[in-house]
Specification:
102 residues, mainly alpha
Length: 102
């Protein structure tokens, strides 16, 4: 496994965490808007639909990353982080490019 593969895994991990935090901030703001402002029913429904759509997209994004070694889906192996080792092939996924662990 190359250092480039490990870098891409870390970037995917950081993006997933950032999107997760942004999603929950969006949820809180949306709930605040629905509860405290006078908005139409259509706008409320659109906002709720957007929340569910974003949740589906983020869930699918979690399952797009694969082990660079054996192509096993990493989304089934962990929640938001990178697993220490691939459960299928045992490849170290949290190694630094120089070969040392985290």
């Amino acid at each position: 496994m190359s250092a480039n593969d490990l870098t891409r895994l870390r970037q995917h991990h950081n993006a997933t965490i950032g999107l997760f935090v942004a999603f929950w901030l969006f949820v809180l703001v949306s709930i605040g808007v629905i509860e405290f402002f006078e908005i139409s029913k259509r706008t409320q429904d659109s906002l709720i639909g957007t929340l569910f759509g974003a949740a589906i997209v983020l869930s699918l994004l979690q399952f797009t990353k694969r082990c660079p070694n054996c192509r096993a889906n990493l989304g089934w192996q962990v929640r938001l982080s990178i697993p220490k080792n691939c459960h299928k092939c045992g490849a170290g996924l949290r190694q630094r490019p120089n070969g040392q662990g985290r």
